Amino acid sequence: NSVFAPPPHRLDLSAKATPYDIALQSIGQGFCDQTVLGMALLAATAASPDGAIVSPTFETDAPRKVVGPFITAQSAAQLRLLMRSVVEGGTASGAFAHLAGRVTSGGKTGTADRDVPVYNSQGKPVVDHVDKDGRTYYKSQGWTDSWYIGFAPADRPVIAYAVVVENGGEGSRAAAPIAAKLLEKAASLGYLSVARPSTRNGGRAEGLPRSR
Predict the structure, then answer these.
(1) Which residues of 46-82 are buried (b: 16+ CB within 10 A; e: fewer)?
(2) What is the pTM of this model?
(3) Taking the CA of residue 152 as centre, how many other CA atoms within 13 Å lie in the half-sphere pointing to its CB?
(4) Which of 63, 3, 33 is nearest to 202 (CA)?
(5) For residue 2, pLDDT beyond 60
(6) FRET pair for 129, CA 20 to 30 Å: which of 31, 89, 147, 197?
């Protein structure tokens, strides 16, 4: 279940949350936790003309199941422009340079810091120290996970995706190049030009992305 399910909800948007907490969570830090699938759904939400969040499915061209509104259509359109600028002149431009003139896309690099427990050769956590009250503290090491989310084509998205490389460093360094290869493969397989059936016939809505 933990592979596809989101982690326990940790966002603190209560009245006790400080402006600092809100700002930190807005960039994916602090109390914010996300799975790769969850981030792919956010990319699909930004790529959707109506800005709605949609339930994932394993079925190709399954009927679109809208969970509910997420952002306005106007905000989604503005977000797509900003994400396109990331690919064409921002932090992901180097990774996607070889696709210029062939495939357009939008995306966002991400760099997430987290503490990872240290285990010994027997698979047990390594003790760091025990305090005066008898509480045991375990060793951990800082990891920097490399993230990238995106959609394509930029002007009329049909696919959305997310990539994470554990302890891969900055998003532009490890995740973005993998995303570029993923996008190149999707184009070669015809995913970016496939005819999309109307939802009136039980298919997927015209111009709405599939998360991968």
Answers:
(1) bbbbbbbebebeeeeeeebeeeeebbeeeebeebbee
(2) 0.79
(3) 27
(4) 63
(5) no
(6) 31
